[in-house]
Amino acid sequence: MKSSLILACAAALALPASAQDTTTEPDWDLLNDPGKKSLIAYVPATTGLTLAVRCVDGALDGVIAGLPAFPRGRPTRPLNLGFGDIPPHETRWSVTTDRTVAISDYPAAFARSLVKGGRLNIVIPGGAGEGRNLRHDLMMPPSSGAIEQVLTACGRPLVDPRDALLPDIEDNGLPLGLKWARPPRPRYPNTNFASGYAVISCVGQPDGTVDQCQVESEQPARGRFGEAALRSVGDARLDLAALPPGRILPHMIAFRVNFYMDGYERPREPE
Predict the structure, then answer these.
(1) pLDDT in tens, 85-140
(2) Per-residue model confidence as pLDDT tens digits over 179-205
(3) Which candidate, 46, 75, 41, 47, places its Cα nearest to that of 60?
(4) Could you give the CA distance from residue 209 to residue 60 in angstroms, rounded to a whole number?
(5) What is the pLDDT of residues 215-237, one digit of tens each?
(6) Do 137 and 184 lie in a common domain?
(7) Nearest-angstrom CA–CA distance, 118 and 158
(8) Spatial CA neighbour of 260 closest among 194, 179, 183, 189
(9) Apex CA 39: angle with CA 33 and CA 42, to 5°?
(10) Could you give phi then psi for residue 147, rounded to 5 degrees?
(11) Angle at which helices 107-114 and 146-153 cross, to 10°
(12) In this structure, is the dihedral angle defined by the CA atoms of residues 186, 172, 202 and 208, taken in order, positive or negative?
């Protein structure tokens, strides 16, 4: 994302009514730009944040804008999210060129969790300065159609049982007790971009193989990084020796691949 989502949302206010959602039911605002193949459902929160789900030329993003600026040189940031009565748990988000904007690693799941509305707790580690966390306790409005339109525009399902398994995935992308015997080793794709990333989810099988893999997110959207990551899973294998007693597969796993061309200065990950 080369420009802040906040600016895109502000621009929506100046567009003709035909370019925006005109339903009478309460819903998120919908910004449609056919020329850019862009459809954005968004809602500003009273605390200064803006939450959005956007489909641009077939690529889906879940976005939170208006965050405290994150330090430069770090490609991802943690945000702790909790829907309803579920305590906030850590999720990893990609940082854009605007350091106050973050993009979800799992945008489709994020979008589907917002459809019904309700309470959303967002805890920003260190967001209040001097090591203090910043909390946003939000009451999100439901979406009667806007978010579904964005998901459909990007070819994403409105319901996916894999969403419920995401909180079980640890920081290494695997459920507790699993590790890689042979991790995916993707090759740099034929692309004009010097760097990019892809987040892939799969289902681990009892023989240690992985299948049913899909691209959850990738940036740049047309950088072929998702394709490269998917090609790498064929030879990957899971080590099942450390599984807790009674734990069985299949189970959902995920991994993120950061791509950098030789000589590119790699940003450091947050500790």
Answers:
(1) 989 988 989 998 899 999 999 999 999 999 999 999 999 999 998 889 999 999 99
(2) 899 999 999 999 999 999 999 999 888
(3) 41
(4) 28
(5) 999 998 889 999 999 999 988 99
(6) no
(7) 18
(8) 194
(9) 115
(10) -65, -40
(11) 160
(12) positive
Cα 251 to Cα 237: distance, rounded to the nearest angstrom: 14
Per the structure block, which two tokens stand in for 201? 């989810």
The Cα 77–Cα 99 span in angstroms is 10
In the block, residue with structure tokens 């760097």: 195
Using alpha carbons, select from 124, 122, 65 the residue that is nearest to residue 96: 65
At position 263, the amino acid (one-letter code) is G
Amino acid letter, 168 = D
Q: Are residues 184 and 58 located together in one domain of the fold?
A: no
CATH code at position 136 = 2.60.40
CB environment 103-131: b (16+ within 10 A), e (fewer)? bbbbbbbbbbbbbebeebbbbbebbeeee
Residue type, 258: N
Residue at token pair 């681990």? 204
Tokens, residue 127: 């967001």
Q: Give me the sign of the Cα torsion angle 255, 102, 74, 81.
A: negative
Placement of tokens 């920003």 in the chain: 124
**Same domain flag for 114 and 244:** no
